[in-house]
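Example 4.3 (complexes with small molecules)
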Amino acid sequence: MAHMIIDGKPCQAISGHTLEVRSPVDGKVFDHIPRSDARDIDLAVRAARAALNGAWGQLSATERGRLMLKLSQLVMTHAEALALLEAKDTGKPMTTARNDMVVLSRYFEFYGGAADKVHGEVIPFLNGYQVNLLREPLVVTAHIIPWNYPAQMMGRSIAPALAMGNAVVVKPAEDACLSCLRIAELALEAGFPAGALNIVSGIGEEAGAALANHPDINFISFTGSNEVGVLIQQAAAKHAVKCTLELGGKSPHLVFEDANLELAATTVVRGIIQNTGQTCTAGSRLLVQQSIHDRFVALVAEKFKQVRVGTPEMNLDCGPVVNPTQQQRVNRFIEQAKASGLPVLAQGQIDPGVPADGYYVMPTFFGAVPADHPLAHQEVFGPVLAAMPFQDEAHAIALANGTDYGLLAAVWTENGGRQQRVAKALKCGQVFVNSFGAGGGVELPFGGVKRSGHGREKGFLALEEMSTTKTVVHFHG
Ligand code: NAI
Ligand code: MG
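Answer. The structure with NAI bound is encoded below.
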């Protein structure tokens, strides 16, 4: 039975209620987590507030950074056990789960190193004045984490917050949170003072909503669905606090006729099947210039057919998806696309040895997808790739920008001028040129425009998001 951490102590929900933890690998219950409610959330927020007035608030930036570096090392010491837990909880292949722990460790390393390198400014003003711009914590920060990369997402969200001296309350996803609970335990082992990092498990509508609506939090970081993102922003508005929202995407590859087609094809397939397509930055749209369309799409199809789905131990390209709802969602998209007559260009293979009750879906590559088809503009969050042709640069840009989302895009061309022009014209938060980066890249500022959300995570910009400034104007004559 897993436990939460509030005020430095392992605990269960006050109500004593629990939730079953099922593995997507075989649909079987293998653990339980506390099902917390508003009372537990209140304790966690109070503990965070007390920590800021106590030991945590007293630490220097250097001391905070050292604790984070210690945690980074502890994550690596326990990486294999954490990866096994993550793989069982989410179904992801062991290689992916192991990589997730390396990225998690990197978050604490990067932001631990940054903790004492962020400083204020002196602003020139009228004669006789000294003006200092101080950089200060937001104070109590709330972090609502999704299930697709639980450990990585927790690192991404809380590491910059801790580096800036905030005290955090984390609400991981009910669908996969065992690694997050374990990371909070490792933080205690690293020596974080009580209340600096609190974690409360439970259902989104119950524990998540209680946290987002709590009157004594000062900031909310959220990654997840559009629907809940809107609720989070409404909750933040009630108490006039800031929030950052990362709400997924429909990220395109733009493949021009002069691209390195072999590299592009390999990367395109990897970019959609990674984590079984359950990645906010999944490269789910493939826009291909008409002149090379058939040739390139055939090359992608050839590679797509090699995609294998299995259990974490089989360690193939994909695992199952996280839960039956997600499985039904992906299957519904596939069935509707077939019913509307879209050609299936390729499918992967599900290993015959997978348990019958696991949540496996068939990776599927559709061609000739019209721009107004749901597959061209709705997020599937599964291993489903949609290809469509374009005539020229202007057409490619129009298609790429033609959804409500704007998270990431990749441009494939050897033409330097086109690389620059297209990168500037794309409406999204990250552009990769002749490359594609889903996950990782802790140094690279990341986030969306349009319905993909707002605010920036990763890199040094996250330190700005997770802090505020105070302008001190001093008249000295
Ligand atoms: P969700 O948005 O419901 O869950 C994400 C997190 O929000 C979880 O921790 C959940 O407990 C919490 N939550 C849910 N309802 C809440 C509420 N009313 N107040 C506060 N917190 C709440 O996402 P869900 O339902 O698991 O997945 C649905 C779709 O959302 C997916 O198919 C996918 O399209 C998208 N999604 C996108 C993610 C991304 O990385 N951008 C991650 C997860 C889901
Ligand atoms: Mg939901």
